[in-house]
Amino acid sequence: MIGTTRMWSTIKTSFCEHKLSSDALVVPASINPNTATAATYPSLDTQLKLLQDNIMSKLKLNNTVTSQNSMVANHTINQWHFHNSVNSKENPQIIETPTLLLHGYAASSMSFHLTFNKLTNGIRDLYAIDLPGNGLSQTPDIKLPSSNTNKMTFNKDHSRFSMTKQVDTLKEKQVLSDYEDYYLDRIDQWRKDNGIEKFNIVGHSFGGYISFKYAITHPDQIENIGLISPLGMERNVYSLNNNFVEAKEYQVTQEDPSSIYYSRNFKVPTFLFNNQLNTLRYMGPIGGSLAKRYINRAYVNVPGTEYHDYLYHIFYKSDKFPRTTISNFTNMFTRNLLAKDPILDNLPKLKANKVLLMYGDHDWMNGEAGYEMATELAQTYNYKPHKEVDFVQVPHAGHNLFLDNPNFFSDQILSFLK
């Protein structure tokens, strides 16, 4: 998720005014990605492929590293695989466990392009994929009922609330699980297609939420997990795990993200929440101007124009932002950008050997919630601080810390995984 709160604010000021995100490439393994066209793979966004190739052409990898771009998971998931021919016997600092990078919402593997050089020098097999409905990965159809939460009523200043209608919790949890499986099943198929038994997973924002959910549903497949400014961390009043009494009034906290009474006044306007990046397209040339202005301001630290051009295509120039992707998101999160099944509610299920929480020093995501996770893992679940669980703040970085300070980010990831 690329600065979603700020961008939605920008759109909101211009339209209703505005906000949103990024992406990468896709072709079956039997098709050469350098020659693939819309004719060989009908749904391929050839312009996006060209923009991605332009970014990757600037990459200067070590001469021991090779890169390969292919389609996996029944030709639905685009992946980049970087292999370093140097092994840990030749260099004890090399990390042998395969490592997967998962991007944020409305983004892609290209989000990490500034880190590929340094990470591939220390990780023998590094993978970065585009989640389904993102980048050049496919968007398989999904038909599921809407996921609902208990109906809450708040007083005027949002300081108190009561539950006015309780849903069938078991039924709604299953529906929510089905939406999450849209991503989890394809990640597991990616793992199988690459012949990987166990791997490290590093996920950013929405990808952090998905990484955590994969880790707790496939514990035997995960070695270590890095959550990079993850979405969906906070416990909250909308969680399907709560057991509130109907009609009873409760006090809201907007300060403590570890509390089941946590909420926030901020809500994405309904139209923007349900249309997201497509809102920019509906606005015509004004939407294009807003997208350019946002990209130039938010990605000022990214050198060159290649990534800016790439994002502009994602935000505005491509035909549309997939309706399935929007539906998945709006059924997993509330308009407050709070998870219906928060990460903090599920800590007892986590079995990863080591856990890293990382945020930018001026990150809009709730770093206090991440710090709470690190604290709970240490105090309640016996993770050793700084050895098995750690919390790191990246200097001179916002939500997209791997773009704002790629060297520091990469060093921290390598140090964590060793």
From TrEMBL:
Record-annotated AB hydrolase-1 domain positions: 100-406
Pfam families: Abhydrolase_1
UniProt protein name: AB hydrolase-1 domain-containing protein
Domain of life: Eukaryota
An example molecular function term from Gene Ontology annotations: lysophosphatidic acid acyltransferase activity
One GO CC term, this protein: mitochondrial inner membrane
InterPro entries given in the database record: AB_hydrolase_1, AB_hydrolase_fold
Lineage of origin: Eukaryota, Fungi, Dikarya, Ascomycota, Saccharomycotina
GO biological process, one term: phosphatidic acid biosynthetic process
